[in-house]
Design a protein that fits this description.
alpha/beta, 35% helix, Rossmann fold, 167 residues, 5-stranded parallel beta sheet
Length: 167
Amino acid sequence: MSNALVGFEHKIIDPAHAATYAGQLPRPMVFTNGVFDLLHRGHVTCLAEARALGASLVVALNSDGSVKRLGKGPDRPLNPLADRLAVVAALESTTLVTWFEADTPLELIVALRPDVLVKGGDWPLEQIVGAREVRGWGGSVHAIPFRFQRSTTDLVDRIRAGAGRTA
């Protein structure tokens, strides 16, 4: 089997080069971020709705170390960063996918200067990291309401509860 990149993998950009690539994207550029550990319907719906707010969508994923510091559990993320990047890059809605090592994506947001900043509906606008900065350069900030109540943590808990049960 070849080690050549699969078509969608060209969307995965090292954060050191993300600002250069993002500067070439169609505007308005939308930015969102998250763990995206076990991709589910809620994730893909939110990403599609985020993309609809602009001409391009940049998605930044928490690095594995960043996820561990979020306190989602000692065994999270379940999928390593490389796998999570590939799955998100494969989505039609995404234009560029990158990652961040810090606890928040603020440095990346400032470097990319998106026109639109988006998070899921569980985030009050005033608590979205980068909201002040994006508004400061004339951008907008949105919390997209959940259309489907899905949670990776809930899914993992359900799987664990079923472990050891026989059919």
